[in-house]
Amino acid sequence: MHTVTSISGLRAVSETWRSAGQRIAFVPTMGSLHAGHLQLVKRARALAERVVVSVFVNPTQFGPGEDFESYPRTPEKDVQQLAEQNVDLLFLPSVDIIYPYGVDRAVRIEIPEVSEGLCGDFRPGHFAGVATVVLRLFNLVQPHVALFGEKDYQQLAVIRRMVQDLYLPVEIEGVATVREADGLAMSSRNQYLTDEQRRQAPLLYATLREIAEQVRLQARPYPELEAQGLRQLEQAGFIPDYFSIRHADTLQVVAPGERQCVVLAAARLGKARLIDNVRVQL
Ligand code: PAF
Fold first, then answer.
1. I need a labelling partner for 72 at 20 to 30 A (CA). Which of 66, 105, 254, 272 fits?
2. Whole-angstrom Cα distance, residue 25 to residue 7?
3. How many Å lie between the centroid of ligand 1 and the Cα of residue 130?
């Protein structure tokens, strides 16, 4: 595995591959890698001859008071896991490389509509930070295809919209959420859970599945189902941010009968803010 920190190092390798007609698959990450990331890498391997992974904890997607400073960083373990997956190139840029004019003077990418509501309401500026860094990484790596986990459902929708709206020459591939045996979606932030909270945490996915089943059965009006989801999470000890039934592509509020839906929730449990979702096809 090549490990590069400079733009020239990255370009030298990727241009050799491109001129040999090889496809490049790209997995952007913030490190602290777990089985969910490794699933993205495995899928990347199936889609292209060359796999590039970036590890960059992006300051512009963290709001004031969020966990940028304390975000888990496990660089040696990350390198070892990526080498075991036969990743071709690991890109480890510094903040100065990603934001050459400085974080405060950076060109920012705002994606209207899909960034609004849901996590957008609770993390102002977060999706602009994600879109801003992902566009920069795409321009540097120049991948043919890039992979993102479906756990971050709204993030995936934001990136798809950016790619379509800006005619970016990259395919976006969503990859199914990898879960622990008890259903908890894998996330670097699960490390913030105490043992007791870790035992409660799977109730987020269980509640989403239960409400998704009621959507499938068209059992009750959606606002009632959303209120039930919120109530169940509160009773289980979570502090929910939202529990919402939306259109699977646009993330807009849906009327009953819409065939492509997704049930999404975000809830805090101690220091961790957990998000998850379940798709429903009527
Ligand atoms: O999902 C993540 O880990 C991050 O939001 C991403 C896409 C790597 C951008 O920093």
1. 105
2. 18
3. 6
Task: Report which ligand 1 atom has the smallest distance to the Cα of 130.
Answer: 9
* Residue showing tokens 């509501």: 117
Ligand 1 centroid, distance to 148 Cα (angstroms):
8
- Whether the model clears a pTM of 0.85, i.e. scores above it, the answer is yes
Tokens 């269980």, located at residue:
206
- Is 37 annotated in the active site? yes
The span from the first CA to the last CA of the chain, in angstroms, equals: 45
The continuous run of DSSP H or E covering 95 comes out as: helix 95-98
Residue 123 in tokens? 């993390």
Query: Could you tell me the domains of the chain?
Result: 2-175 (3.40.50.620), 188-281 (3.30.1300.10)
Cβ–ligand 1 contact at 28 (below 6 Å): yes
Integer Cα distance of 70 and 73 in angstroms: 8
Q: Is 163 in the pocket of ligand 1 (CB under 6 A)?
A: no
